Structure formats: structure tokens, C-alpha cells
């Protein structure tokens, strides 16, 4: 069935017309007893029922009209009248498959009436001959309707396949955009946090390098440690980018989670001079990797903003475990103000991270001064089940 679709329509329809002409000519070449012998007028009328089929798909109505005129003319000429209207069968099939409802139904009625009139001209025509001619015409028309339905069904399937392919492309583009945004947030958090710690220590280094060499050495060690930590995490992120098939399943494996929050708290307290405390209420439990990563990064970015903008002496990290969510609150006693704290992309990234895993985040001045970042992340039993191996 695919071969005729790939072949030139003129070639296919020309072969069909030649086949019909051959079938019509057999009646002249091998006439029954009492039939008229072959004549050139009869052959031309027979050709008139076959040759127009070359244009049956380009001009179905014109083709049907020509054959509808040639067929009764050949019957009236009686040289001999056709036993089977091959051209008419093909015409009715073509009209049912390609033409509009009104002309194809009108043509069907005309052919049925014409076939009945032609049979009445025959002497001693048996009833089964009437039935044969009429059923053959109706069958050709019915097969044309089936071909039309099949073609429409195939076109619908092809259109659906194209639509699904477009949707897959859109989903791929959306996934790529989302992944880029997620990676950008990770790199912003890693680099911003490390650079903030390094800047704080670098600014304090010249002050104590002569008066307190031990503290200056500790500051340089803190700078080196923050740099190494940042390089390690960046190397892991870039490794996932360059080798997406390494089995890590995205960035979940290399990105730290809630288990490393105490290390983060100690690092910030030791390297910046900001006294950071961590308090946990409720019952901690395993949660989805995406939510755990978001929780860690939210705390990290909130503390980075505290170090960079708030000029704070103290900061408090509160984790409240509820039945269905994890509430995170990071407050400080800084004097930098909301404008300074919101100057960069950090707070926007916190909101994006929370929203990406189905939660929410807000930031602004604290009720007793300073600045506060709060987030609520889903932490349901279903997530814990998904996280379990």
C-alpha cells in the first residue's frame, strides 16, 4: 500500500486506465455468439470509458462525467454493450473516496438508473443480472467510502503523531530550561557562599596579620577551605553537565542535603565571626532528595545573604518538622536592611527553589529587627517512600 503512495499518481492511474481498457477490449476480441464484431467506433467508445481514468484523482468530477457519457453511448451503439462497466466501478470508487457528498451521491443515483435502463434494453435479461450490476456498483461505492474513512483515519493518526512529537520537543525544551535554571541556582549558591566567606576572611586578614598571626593563619586556612569546597562542588556539577549518563540521576547525588547542615553552620560560624545556631523541632525523617537539596540550599543562601549584606552578629536557623511539611526559618540581628539583602539574585533563587519542589518562601524584615527568610517545603510520607531504595 505504501508503494502507490510513493509512485507518481499519473503513472498509477495510467496503469489502471490501461488495465480497464484491456478488460473492456476483451469483449470485442472474444465476442459471444450473436454479438457484433469489433469496430473502430466501438473501440473508441470503449476507450472513452477507460482513458479518462488517468485524471481520476486530479479531476474526479470531470473524469466521472466523461465516463458516464461514454458508457451509455457504447451500450446504445451495441458493439457489444458492456457486460461489466469496469470504468463505472472505478469512477464510483474514486468519487466515494475523493469527491464531496453531493456530487458523489448524485453520480451514484445516475449510475444505478443508467445500469437499470441498460439492462432493460437486453433481451431475456435474467433477474440475477440486474442484481449483479446493481450490487457491483453499490459495492464499488462502498469500498470507496471505506478507503475515504481509512485515509481520514491515517491522516488523523499522522497528525496525532506530529502533535505528540511537537509536545515531546516542547517538553524537552522545558526540561532543558528547568535544568539550566536549577544548575544556575546551584552554581550561584556554591560560588556566592564560598566567595562571601573568602571575602570576609580576606578583609580580616590584613588587620590581624601582624597583631595576631595565629588568627591570620586561620583566616587564610578558612579561605583555602572555602575555595576547595567550592571547587569540589563545582567540579561535581560540571561533571554531571558534561556526562549526563553517569548514573547520578541529575544533581541529586553530588549536592549536599540536610545531614550536612551542621557542617555548614560550623563553617559559617568559624570563618565569618557570625554566631550561627541550629534548632530542630518535631520529628526529622527522610524526605525527597529534591526537597532535601532545596532545604540545604535555602539555608546556605540565607546565611550567605546574612554574611554579605546584614552586618549581623548572630543568626538562627530553625527547622520545624510538621506532619506534611518542613518549615525553615533563618533570622539574623543584622542592620543591613531589606533593600541590601534583596539586592542580588539570592532571595529570588530561594523562592524559585521552594516553588520547584511544591513549596513557598518569603523574606523580609524580622518582627524584632534584623532580617528573616522563611520557607515551607512538602515533607510527606509519599516522598519518603519515593526516596527509599
Entry summary:
Helices cover 66% and strands 10% of the residues.
Describe this structure in words.
With 389 residues, the chain is an alpha+beta fold. It is 66% helix and 10% strand. The chain is built from 13 helices and 5 strands. A 5-stranded mixed sheet has the order 1-2-3-5-4. Strand 2 and strand 3 form a beta hairpin. Helix 4 runs parallel beside helix 6 and helix 5 runs parallel beside helix 7. It starts with a helix and ends with a helix. The C terminus is likely disordered.
Please describe the structure with a list of short key phrases separated by commas or semicolons.
389 residues; alpha+beta; five-stranded mixed β-sheet; 5 strands; rod-shaped; disordered C terminus
Q: What's the helical proportion of residues? A: 55-70%
Shape: rod-shaped
Work out the radius of gyration: 42 Å
Largest sheet: 5 strands, mixed
**Which structural class do you get from the secondary structure elements?**
alpha+beta
Instruction: Write the H/E string, N to C.
Output: HHHHHHHHHEHEEHHEEH
Low-pLDDT parts are 246-254, 338-343, 384-389
Amino acid at each position: 500500500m505504501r508503494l502507490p503512495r510513493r509512485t507518481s499518481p499519473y503513472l498509477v492511474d495510467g496503469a489502471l486506465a490501461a488495465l480497464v481498457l484491456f478488460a473492456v477490449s476483451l469483449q470485442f476480441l472474444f465476442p459471444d455468439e450473436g454479438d457484433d464484431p469489433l469496430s473502430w467506433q466501438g473501440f473508441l467508445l470503449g476507450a472513452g470509458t477507460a482513458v479518462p481514468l488517468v485524471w481520476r484523482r486530479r479531476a474526479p468530477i470531470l473524469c466521472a462525467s466523461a465516463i458516464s457519457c461514454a458508457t451509455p453511448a457504447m451500450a446504445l451503439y451495441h458493439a457489444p454493450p458492456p457486460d461489466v462497466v469496469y470504468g463505472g466501478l472505478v469512477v464510483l470508487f474514486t468519487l466515494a473516496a475523493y469527491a464531496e457528498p453531493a456530487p458523489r451521491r448524485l453520480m451514484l443515483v445516475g449510475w444505478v438508473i443508467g445500469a437499470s435502463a441498460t439492462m432493460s434494453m437486453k433481451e431475456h435479461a435474467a433477474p440475477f443480472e440486474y442484481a449483479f450490476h446493481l450490487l457491483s456498483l453499490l459495492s464499488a461505492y462502498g469500498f470507496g467510502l471505506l478507503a475515504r474513512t481509512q485515509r481520514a483515519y491515517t491522516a488523523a493518526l499522522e497528525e496525532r503523531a506530529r502533535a505528540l512529537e511537537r509536545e515531546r520537543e516542547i517538553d524537552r525544551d522545558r526540561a532543558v530550561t528547568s535544568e539550566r535554571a536549577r544548575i544556575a541556582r546551584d552554581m550561584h549558591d556554591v560560588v556566592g557562599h564560598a566567595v562571601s566567606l573568602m571575602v570576609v576572611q580576606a578583609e580580616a586578614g590584613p588587620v590581624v596579620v601582624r597583631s595576631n598571626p595565629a588568627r591570620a593563619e586561620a583566616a587564610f586556612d578558612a579561605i583555602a577551605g572555602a575555595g576547595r569546597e567550592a571547587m569540589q562542588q563545582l567540579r561535581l556539577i560540571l561533571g554531571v553537565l558534561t556526562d549526563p549518563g553517569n548514573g547520578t540521576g541529575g544533581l541529586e547525588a553530588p549536592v549536599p542535603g540536610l545531614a550536612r547542615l551542621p557542617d555548614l553552620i560550623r563553617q559559617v560560624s568559624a570563618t565569618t565571626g557570625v554566631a550561627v545556631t541550629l534548632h530542630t523541632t518535631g520529628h526529622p525523617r527522610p524526605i525527597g532528595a529534591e526537597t532535601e537539596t532545596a532545604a540545604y540550599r535555602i539555608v546556605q543562601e540565607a546565611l550567605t545573604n546574612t554574611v554579605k549584606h546584614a552586618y549581623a552578629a548572630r543568626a538562627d536557623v530553625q527547622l520545624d518538622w510538621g506532619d506534611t511539611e518542613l518549615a525553615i526559618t533563618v533570622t539574623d540581628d543584622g542592620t543591613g536592611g531589606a533593600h541590601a539583602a534583596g539586592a542580588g539574585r539570592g532571595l529570588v533563587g530561594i523562592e524559585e527553589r521552594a516553588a520547584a519542589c511544591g513549596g513557598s518562601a518569603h523574606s523580609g524584615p524580622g518582627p524584632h529587627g534584623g532580617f528573616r527568610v522563611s520557607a515551607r517545603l512538602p515533607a510527606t510520607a509519599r516522598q519518603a517512600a519515593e526516596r527509599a531504595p
